[in-house]
Amino acid sequence: MPLEVPSAAEAAAYHRLEWLDYSMIGAYLVATVWMALIFSRRQHSAEEYFLGGRRMPWFAVGLSLMATLTSTVSYLATPGEVIKYGVMGAMGGLVFYPLIYLVIAYGLVPVFLRLRVTSIYEYLEQRFDVGTRMFASAIFLVVRLNWMGLVLFSSTLALAQITQLDRLLILAGIGVIAVVYTTLGGMRAVIWTDVAQFFILFGGALFTVAYVVAETGTGPVAWWQAIDAADRPVQPIFSFDPYERVTLVGMGLLGFFWYVCTYAGDQVAVQRLMSTASARAARWSSACDLISGLLVTLALVAVGIALYTYYQGQPPADADQTFPYFIRSQLPRGLAGLVVAALFSAAMSSLDSGMNSVATVISVDYVERWRATPLAPAAQLLLARGLTVAVGLLSILMCLALFLIPEHIRGNLLELAQRVSSFPVGGLGGLFLAAIWVRRCTGPIAVQATCAGMLFGLVVGWGHTFGVFPEDRPLSFMWIIPSSCLVTLLYAQLVSAVRPRGDR
Length: 504
What we know:
By secondary structure, the protein is mainly α. The chain has a domain at 8-38 and 58-105 and 116-256 and 290-403: Up-down Bundle (Sodium/glucose cotransporter), CATH 1.20.1730. It is built from 21 helices and no strands. Helix 4 packs across helix 16, helix 19 runs parallel beside helix 21 and helix 20 packs antiparallel against helix 21. The termini are far apart.
């Protein structure tokens, strides 16, 4: 018997979050701030604030990495991608996980863990010169601020639909709470709240799947058959056509280059690895990140196919907003509050990590690097907290800027995330890979290579808006990070190979 789905007007009329839902959300937020207050008592130095004393447990670091790198964008975009296009785009990134682990654990971890640094961009000054260090850290700041703005953007859209509150009020609420507990607790608070947030966001997805099973009497096999039989464009396993939106191999390559570039050049990821006690613990942390990421991805894919079946292939909202709509209109009171808390946790886990890492880079690479005399420990800690507040406010401004981009240009959340923040990720990752693997590379060559790679990625991602490619058929977002990384590496390798050997 077909499931009768209420119209949007009917659902809005008799389903709103109630006191039990808001109580659960409030309890989550209060617990988060309470944890930060506890950890704030242990903050006595900048190293403790930024790296947790380099004694954080590997499993906590691994789950923190996973929660950090799975933001509200992923939490909403994965089910939305499955509903609108199918499972290929959501699951293709899992193809190269074993190879990703080998490159991270044995190609990158040994390099960074033998350096007793706070900012990974200090390595570039040791390897090249101070100019290269400043260049790379500036790119990171732009990338991470863009990303935090995107996280706030997606969170605000989803929570506004669920709660029916004003978007600016929600934006201010998320931003202020994230700033408060990150500023108070430092890296320890960030990691341990991320651990709690991992279980909340994973549990929210599982509870949604369980509810659809109970309501419909169907399961994953029937859902898979329904979505597989849908009349939609075919998503091939592989294609030589660069305009093909998604292929299994293409998404696998995107996942591989994204992970490698993130672990190579992103302070957010590497800072967590450096908070562990040894290279062995860092390897375990990266393995924990990948395994927990696999579980969450599968859970979110299950949410997507469950909702596709629940609405009989005709969701009553835009694909990216189907999950939030379902939370508000169908989940029972209390359970809706839990899943909303999961959306909050997905946002917070990315914001807190971004704020802490951006504050680290500004403090170490710009303030302390250029001071004639070092700051006292108390002054360093005060500076770190002040910078964290400033970074949080900047991320709110970035979110407001994203609201100005017309919807027809933004595309769906998955595409928007890739086109807004991917080309610098590939270039910055390629810069670090060149520093590690291209022995004859110099600072000026590395900077030139990174600029070339980012420019190439920018054209791939946004060329259709500038008339380089047909506006109605842009190059696939899958190739932004791989192309920008490879162009950076190739430029560095070729120019380094032909330069005179005496040129240092």
